[in-house]
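User: What would this chain look like folded?
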Amino acid sequence: MWNRGVGMKEEKFLLLVLILLFASFFASHFKITGTVTKEAFVLINDYRCEAVDGGFRVCETVEWGGVENGYAKGYVLGGERLSEADRQYASPFTYCQDISGGDYKRVGVQAYVYDAANRLVALDKSKAVECSRSVEMGEFVKRVYFNAQRNTGHGLGFGVVEIKLPGDPISCTVDGYWESDNEGRGTSGIKRYCHKARGILQGYVDFYEQYVVEDPDYFIWAGPSKPKANPLEKRYNGEILHARLCDNQYYQEDGERYIAIGKVVDFSKDLKIEWSYVNEDTMPVVNFIFDLKCKLKEEKVGRVQESRENVESEIVEDIGKVEEPRKVDEEIVPFEMPVERERRVGFWERIREYLRDTFL
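Assistant: Here's the prediction, encoded as structure tokens.
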């Protein structure tokens, strides 16, 4: 007699074999495309701005993944519409747009990822870049005159010269000379031969460096007992002014004993030159006379920053929306990112659920 319990087991076994055969055939002849995984993501790794004629060029570098047969798009507010942006299939990719602007502009940058059915599945919308340009105001020229001399005893002197500029400097040059006064008021040296000694000065300073080239004139640098000479010019880094003064050891190779120098210590529209003086011999007053020529700028501080302020209200598309050409007068509506999306059940997961319900 037919055993009903055994028959039921054989039926279930045969049904399982048929299901496995059908699944194997289906998987080998059909390819399921456009599957969105839980790891779908997009990230703007880098974003930057540079000034160009008529505005700014804004670029973003985007990394994305986690969706089969999908694609990504970059978007810069103020550039081309999202529907016109090229689809990007590689990761990472860089997307750039030229936008109009004056001296300053704040621009949102975004990135979107779509699946094979053109549904938006991930976005990065929280970045903003602030663009600025420096506008040169031309050349500013000022004749500067000051003297350096001992003021603390023992042949030492120190001081600061402040020069007011009408704007922040980009770079400045010094073109002039220094000249010694060994006979006028303020000189008290016993030896007074270092009078009317002179050196030509050509200097340069910006935010990164400063230097000066001094070219001494024809003079009795080592004293009246030595012949006149015209020493070679010499460059001094880290200074904007330099005067090598008379010294009976002037031509020795052990360095310079007596000098008056100047260094820029505040390179701004309140430009400051700090000077120092060393001379324990003739102790002349050193007069610096030069033209200070500066290129000035009117600059708004530009920076790149992450920000959600004033960017969320300009989001172009929402998660789950199918990409389609946008109308010119289409209103852009802000949205909140969904906390959790509905789980999609794949083919194999349905098979597993059926087998679990049937045999367990």
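The helical segments are 4-29, 347-359. If you want, I can go into more detail on any region.
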